[in-house]
Write a sequence for this structure.
């Protein structure tokens, strides 16, 4: 019975030391990563969040605006509601990280409205 406990203990100790050794380089790099991200939060597109919002706003109502929205804010959009507009219905999508709501028409794949804040329903004149 003691033979079974010793290998398990040895395996656990080995795994713990590997995790500790692996974590050490990450802890030394973290100040550099914080400085780099604090300077400007850019991703693979090379754009800041405000530049992305400005581009989506600039291309509002143009075909392909939905692709641009998904590319820039993939996984960061929370649906707030659906309302009449566009070619039938539009979906209002909220980006919590940037406190911005986008109104998106899936029929034509266009963004029809953009506003700062959490907007459950846009005025009808903005989403037509």
């Amino acid at each position: 019975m003691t033979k079974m406990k010793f290998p398990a203990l040895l395996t656990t100790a080995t795994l713990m030391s590997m995790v500790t050794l692996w974590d050490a380089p990450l802890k030394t790099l973290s100040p550099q990563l914080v400085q780099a991200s604090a300077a400007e939060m850019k991703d693979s597109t090379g754009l800041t969040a405000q530049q992305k919002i400005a581009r989506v706003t600039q291309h509002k109502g143009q075909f392909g605006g939905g692709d641009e929205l998904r590319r820039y804010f993939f996984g960061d959009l929370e649906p707030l509601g659906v309302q009449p507009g566009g070619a039938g219905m539009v979906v209002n999508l909220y980006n919590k990280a940037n406190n911005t709501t986008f109104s998106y028409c899936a029929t034509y794949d266009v963004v029809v409205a953009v506003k700062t804040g959490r907007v459950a329903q846009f005025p009808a004149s903005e989403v037509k």
Remarks:
- The first helix runs from residue 2 to 39.
